[in-house]
Specification:
Length: about 550
Amino acid sequence: MSRIRHVRGSRLVMAGTAATTATLLVAALAPGATAADRPSPAAALDHAAAALSDHAAALDLTDAQDTEARDVIVDEDGTQHVRYDRSYRGLPVLGGDFVVHLAPDGGFRGADRATDAALSLPTVTPKLSGPKAADLAAHALRAANPGELLKKLTAKPELVVDALHGIPKLAWRTNAAALDSLGNPVARTVLTDAGTGARIDAWDTIESASGDGKSLYGGTVPLETTQSGPSYQLKDPTRGGTYTGDAENQTDLCFLTICLVRAPATLFTDADNHWGTGNADDRASAAVDAQYGTDATWDYYADVHGRSGIAGDGKGSYNRVHYGTRYNNAFWDDSCFCMTYGDGDGTTFGPLVSLDVAAHEMSHGVTSKTAALTYSGESGGLNEATSDIFGTLVEWHAGNSADPGDYLIGENVVRDGFGREALRFMDRPSRDGSSADCWSTSVGDMDVHYSSGVANHFAYLLAEGSGARTVGGVAYDSPTCDGSTVSGIGRDKLGDIWYRALTVYMTSSTDYAGARAATLSAAGDLYGADSAEYAAVGAAWSAVSVA
């Protein structure tokens, strides 16, 4: 069954307020202004609340709807961006999210919305029963895992309003979860029309990714630890208390967001603060990689984007290594705010704790706290690409000579049985045999790990440019889809543009055309609409057939 493509997000700008923000982040504060003059997040929330009241009609807000702020960003010049989720008659609205943009004085400048469709349903009473929706989702999970005898399968439906797929309608969002034959978790979210029983969409919900330690992939790396009596804990007090524990080859038993049993995260300890041997038979070695990956990802977001931790609140996450039995995956889980790593089967994958995999998975957490890109269709491809882009940038930022930066994803974890040298290739994504180099109308129907290729290709072109070249000792060849020649602007500018687009302009329903608009807005904010960087963003998108 083909997926219905997402509604493209809209840009609302009130008349007379479309002032240019060409030097938003690169100019000094205006004469006479100081950092103390910038509105606080609390003030931004007050300004946004007033804007919602004053512009409710333009934003299609009615008495039947409630809004809840999810995130606040205040720029250097005091410009404010407040992100909201919506509910309708008490029901969550998928695609109801929007970002309100405010001038430094709190004046309303406009909004980016996941959908511009008006929310007005004749009833919130479903014709399709919840148990029937649960049965359909359970069947979908079995169909997505052919040949597997799934155990402890559960499916719990939640009534929602779906505004992501055309005209808003009442729907059941059902999260189905089970254990496979090895005891590892599988999960799928199924969106079902509550009136007709037709499947609207479905997607996987396990997002597939001072001492020192000898890691599996990164050589000997520095570690900040916590002394506890005569021993040390693999817990970093300088990065929000992030820590790494042993899952002891157990798995979670979760029903939707409620976990009856969680695999443990038994904190690693060490007598001399020198961790691991660099060999997989020492269980601490994979823990070293995981903790190092957390550290490097934290440092990238803090050093480059001023973000403190995954959620931006200064709080650390935690890692579990040695999860399940021969588990060929790693995943970020919002419900535990944790990273989980399998050991791989030894034939296709080794332990999935490499730096770019760790940074990829934790960047899913950043996405969930910002744009919350839906994990299906073109939005899902952008979600995956965001993690590939930032996973790559973290690897470059870390500057580890034992694991130097490159535009290959997961090159360290693949084994001979996988059949190629990396999971994905950003210079020419089709090198993996499945990913898309160029946008087409069929991209939204692809698996999100393959539709991500369009944005990965864009990112490589924007950073490095088109054609054959060697970067960091690795040979790449990146042809364009339209035969054009693209000049790169560097990795740092790519990261700045993508981060601002993600955190300020993208919404849950952003598709590729929306991503082009969001990154152009971000480039205009950072460098100016007449800048070479702005032109390069447009050229790179055109080069992958996104107009």
